[in-house]
Amino acid sequence: MKKILVTGALGQIGSELVPKLREIYGADKVIATDIRRIENQVVNGGPFEILDVTNGKALLDIAKKHNVDTIMHLACLLSAKAEDNPLLAWNINMNGTLNALEAARELDAKFFTPSSIGAFGPTTPADNTPQDTIQRPTTMYGVNKVSGELLCDYYHKRFGVDTRGVRFPGLISYETLPGGGTTDYAVDIYYKAIQDGTYTSYIKEGTYMDMMYMPDAIQAIIQLMQADPDKLVHRNAFNVTAMSVEPKDFAIAIQKYIPSFTLNYEVDPVRQAIADSWPNSIDASAAKNEWGFKAKYDLEKMTEDMLEKLKAKQLDRVANN
Length: 321
Ligand code: NAD
Hints:
The protein is an alpha/beta fold. 45% of the residues lie in helices and 15% in strands. It has a 6-stranded parallel β-sheet, sandwiched between helices. The chain has a 3-stranded parallel β-sheet with strand order 6-8-12. A 3-stranded mixed β-sheet has the order 9-11-13. Helix 1 (14-25) links the parallel strand 1 (4-7) and strand 2 (30-34). Helix 1 (14-25) packs across helix 8. Bound molecules: nicotinamide-adenine-dinucleotide (NAD).
């Protein structure tokens, strides 16, 4: 990886991945792109271009102009937003991925894109979900994610593109708010714990889903991209996870630091139905065995860090006002 193009770089993952890549490979070696522009460290810390991934020509032109040898494709419409607008989701998630893969094929570039636990469905074994198993998702996002996994496998087999990817669980972070997924509650709960001392969850008590703290997600991407290709049996869509948790688990972890914190429920049927169709816990042993994946943060460690970082952000905001 000498020159890296990142699509959807202003989202929850990109806003932490781009600075980390720039730290490792050099600021001018990471070309951040997104359909929108906001003034932050991604836009101001190195090359940035406006790019709509549904425009295949523009994507290829930018990749060629910067002579990139790696494409990290993050632009996407997440699960809850995709259910609101399934046709837009198909266009961004499928045509965007195809365009990015085509650019990788044309430039003989390495390719990374994340799949999701949303690629599983109600007929998938829900506990310790295997790497290779039934995938019949019932959401547009899930349909897009399975198709994306298959496309990446196809581009590797048919055209020899060095495609790699993971199935991320819900990601928890403090830098950028999540973009409209089903596991967003797991981020909101920390913000509300600090701001209001209470949180109303749209996900029902007892609904287990996999989660991971952003530093582990960023480390997983970099580690997989640097892995010896000869050791990769799967290449795309590796199950990765750090914890299987339900809303009450977060409340108990938060109460250790904010004892008066309370949790209530007001279930959103749309996001609850999506959550119910996803696994309770996934098996990440293929990622562990093939490229050494290991998460550092469990719920306790993550909670301590999240609360500390969010409190510091709040103090910064007060100081700047
Ligand atoms: P996000 O919603 O936070 O960010 C997506 C970015 O894509 C946004 O900055 C948006 O402006 C941009 N975008 C939207 N339409 C675009 C277009 N047409 N052209 C270019 N850019 C466009 O998403 P994220 O959480 O950073 O997710 C990145 C990837 O990781 C996605 O493939 C997602 O499915 C996957 N993933 C994320 C999570 C999670 O919890 N965040 C979990 C599993 C998988």
